[in-house]
Specification:
There is one protein chain. The chain is mainly alpha-helical. It is built from 19 helices and six strands. The relative contact order is 0.11. The two termini are about 45 Å apart. It has three domains: about 30-130, Orthogonal Bundle (Fumarase C, Chain B, domain 1); about 135-235 and about 250-385 and about 480-490, Fumarase C, Chain A, domain 2; about 385-450, Ribonucleotide Reductase Protein R1, domain 1 (Orthogonal Bundle), CATH 1.10.40. It has a two-stranded antiparallel sheet. Bound molecules: arginine.
Length: about 500
């Protein structure tokens, strides 16, 4: 009754068929079945609960398809307009929450077609030359393209906030110890540290853009798997939907979910970056570090311990990355054993993608707010940055600049460090190191100058280094890259 070559019902739209008359079938595929689907099958099979969020994309793709059918002579202009009006009405009903879903609505494609056909008999021609297999791939590509654009902007926004805080930190000369192995290593500007996170996010923006480019291919016109005997023109639907390209192979068009995996990888990688930033904020807000004070609007309290101020936003940025990684690996596992072409397993593509997009949106917005409001504690940072031991490499390099082989210089300074660390009073270790340097015949007063506060920060001048002169150049480049990234995706 619902197949493409069946009489399509020429009733104008004011003669609305209704479900009660029996003109609308129980399912779109019930024709060859005698029994109704079991409840347990419907519960497993139905994707409407989660794919209804693609309703706007589904209707946009149907509009494009219907226009194409009219352009190639498979629908009359009147039928095209009637179906378009019915689709407008379905879109309005769903957007306003007025849509009455039917038990037979197994997915958004079924539901839109069922309702459009109730509103206008000509909509029974809407599925001409189309399958849910090319339809769902089209809808999901449209949805993913929009989502990638939105998230690209949010990630750019967070990177801009980091760059703005970096610029402020640069202008006020804030510095902190840089770490390796989470041990204080060499001092860097706070601007340098914040900018490092911004550069990572800029790579995410590139990856999101790469995913977008591979998403931007129209599969509509591939049919169930092998194209059509009807004179369809896939380039018309692709152009109407703003796709950059059309599919090359109908089997590939309906089987390909690489774009979902690409998006999930880009989002997982973004999540990993957000997690690493979160982890540092957790550390930095601890009493032991004391580098930052979280604004009250982005911190939480304890229900038991009145004194607590907790970094939940940063912890969730760290914690949520787990599910992002899980979504990527889960989808890859789903895809890896599938024969061509469409298999129902592919329905498992949507929930991980939707959740990954929602998760990255939540975390990015919250971290943006946190980073925009966090206070940096200059004294706590400087105490670590200006520790004379953090200038030990500088002492060795001072000797190297005067001809000593680096290995020998390293050994000499390591010996002084060892001596300075020996002794009962930890608080006098820094001054002991300075005294040892001053007294050493190969070093002396000039070398001891390297241990004065700020020196080791300022003297890191090589390209991309953490000292203020190099950071000034870097920030210009970062700000220009962010400016350019603002145009990505759109
Ligand atoms: N709900 C399905 C999905 O998400 C739509 C495609 C169903 N196609 C089919 N031939 N059963 O993948």
């Amino acid at each position: 009754m619902f197949s493409d070559d069946a009489p399509a019902g020429e009733a104008p739209c004011d003669e609305r068929p209704t479900g009660a008359t029996g003109t609308v079938p129980t399912t779109l595929w019930h024709g060859r079945f005698t029994g109704a689907p079991a409840d347990a099958l419907a519960a497993l099979n139905d994707s409407l609960p989660f794919d209804q969020r693609m309703f706007a994309e589904d209707i946009a793709a149907s509009r494009a398809h219907v226009s194409m059918l009219a352009a190639v002579g498979l629908l009359s202009p009147g039928e095209r307009d009637d179906i378009a009006a019915a689709l407008d009405e379905v879109e309005r009903e769903i957007a306003e929450g007025a849509m009455v879903w039917a038990p037979s609505d197994e997915d958004i494609h079924t539901a839109v077609e069922r309702r459009a056909t109730e509103l206008c008999a000509a909509a029974a021609k809407m599925h001409t030359g189309r399958s849910r297999n090319d339809q769902v791939a089209t809808d999901l590509r449209l949805w993913t393209r929009n989502a990638l654009d939105e998230l690209t902007q949010l990630v750019v926004d967070l990177a801009r906030t980091l760059a703005r805080r970096a610029r402020q930190a640069h202008e006020t000369g804030l510095r902190l110890p840089g770490y390796t192995h989470l041990q204080q290593a060499q001092p860097v500007g706070l601007a340098h540290h914040l900018a490092a996170h911004a550069w990572a996010l800029l790579r995410d923006v590139e990856r999101l853009g790469d995913a977008r480019r591979r998403t931007d291919v129209s599969p509509l016109g591939a049919g169930a798997l092998a194209g059509s005997t009807l004179p369809l023109d896939p380039s018309l639907t692709a152009a109407a939907l703003g796709f950059a390209r059309i599919f090359e192979n109908s089997l590939d068009a309906v089987s390909d979910r690489d774009f979902v995996a690409d998006a999930l990888y880009a989002l997982a990688m973004t999540g990993v970056h957000l997690s690493r930033l979160g982890e540092e904020l957790v550390l930095w807000s601890s009493a032991e570090f004391g580098f930052v004070t979280l604004d009250d609007t982005f911190a939480t309290g304890s229900s038991m311990m009145p004194q607590k101020k907790n970094p939940d936003v940063a912890e969730l940025a760290r914690g949520k990355s787990g599910r992002l990684i899980g979504h990527l690996t889960g989808l890859l596992a789903t895809l890896k054993g599938l024969p061509l072409a469409y298999n129902k397993d592919l329905q498992e593509d949507k929930e991980p993608l939707f959740d990954a997009v929602d998760t990255v949106r939540l975390v990015t917005l919250a971290l943006d707010g946190l980073m925009g409001t966090v206070a940096f504690n200059a004294d706590a940072m400087a105490a670590g940055a200006d520790d004379p031991f953090a200038a030990a490499t500088d002492l060795a390099e001072w000797l190297v600049a005067r001809g000593t082989p680096f290995r020998d210089a390293h050994e000499l300074i390591a010996g002084l460090v060892r001596q300075a660390l020996d002794g009962p009073d930890p608080s006098s270790r820094p001054s002991r190191l300075a005294a040892l340097v001053r007294a050493h015949p190969d070093l002396g007063a000039e070398a001891a100058q390297l241990l004065t506060p700020g020196s080791a920060h300022v003297r890191r001048t090589t390209p991309g280094a953490g000292g203020p002169d190099a950071v000034a150049i870097q920030l210009e480049r970062l700000e220009a890259a962010l400016e350019a990234a603002g145009a990505v995706g759109g």
